[in-house]
Every structure is written in structure tokens, then in C-alpha cells.
Design brief:
By secondary structure, this protein is mostly beta strands. The chain has strands spanning 3-4, 22-23, 26-29, 37-42, 52-55, 62-67, 79-85, 91-95, 108-118, 135-144, 147-157, 164-172, 177-185, 187-200. Residues 1-35 form the signal peptide.
Amino acid sequence: MFRPHRTRRTRWVVVAAAALTLLGAGVVTAIPAQAGVVTTQNGFEGNPYDFWNAHHTEGSSIVNLITHVEARPTNGGEFAAWFDAPGTVPARISTNALVLPRPSGGQVTCRAEMYLKKGIMGVPTFTPPPTGNPRVQLTVNERRGSVDTVIDGSTYTLTNTDYQRAEFASWPYRDGNIVVTVSVTGGAAFADDLFVRCASAIQ
């Protein structure tokens, strides 16, 4: 299991149905027969660089969004984010700015989750035992103009070699652009299947 430095669990209440559209390379959907819910999800499939931006420092850290045997097999998934950052220089990915439609209904709360596991140091196609316990920081930011402000987030130390769900942020709905950032230091890690959900309370 990974050890969260902070995590939150939120109960969700939903009401009647809504139809939403595609948002860039991330799919925005409404849960059938349950109004007041908006879900954005991305599992790195297709061309992940249409949705994600990757940042690393040559010689110190690396990140690739690639087809990999370690991708979660959910829905036939073949892509995952692979990070190798053995020191303190991070490997990082961030989404393009997301605009989340406000669900109908009462007060709206949003939450974000992603699946994480400890990875393999070195070439990602090798399969030696994993080494190091990487730290993964996940944040949700609000972007206004050129300024990003952290809304919420959590940091995890990964010891798990199977994917575990990390519910890393919960916040009251905001109508600004949202950016999700994943940053890894201290080892190698895989990340897959981002979900951002906003749900309204029953009035």
C-alpha cells in the first residue's frame, strides 16, 4: 500500500440526468440517470500529449507517456505515465486547462483521483524488482490568466507494486480553468486513469 500524507474521502449525492460533451482529449460525461454529476477522465490512450504536458530535467529525471505492459488493463488500456526521478529533481506532468461544466442541482463539490503504483528504476521495459519508495505529489490548481493557484492536493509515498486508487483532492466547485499536476521524486512510479468528478447535493 502507499502511505498518504493526507487524503480525503467524500460521499456523493446525485440527482436526475444531464448530457455533456467532449473536452479536448479528455472525455466529459454525465452518469446516466443521475443528474448533477460531471466526470472528466483520461487514461493516456490515443495521443496522450494532446491532453498532458510532460516536464523533466535531462540527466536527473525522466517522464514518458507510453504504451507499457504496466498500464492498467481497464477498458483495454495500453498507455500509462512512467516516471523515473531517483533524486530530488522531479519528473512531472500536467493537464491542459480543463473547464468543468457546473452540474445542475444544489451545492457542488468536486473530487479528483488517480491510480498509482511503485515503478522500476531504469529502463521501463526491464522487470527487475522495484527499488526506492517514490514520493508522488498530486495537486489541483485553478488557472486565472497566467497564474496557477493550488486548490487542494496530497502527497503519497508509494510502497505498493499493484495499482491503488489515490483520492487526492476535494474542493467546492469553481468556474475557472482547472489544471491537474502529478510530480514524482525519490524513485520510479506509474500513474494511470485520472478522474475528476463534480457532483451536486440534493436540494
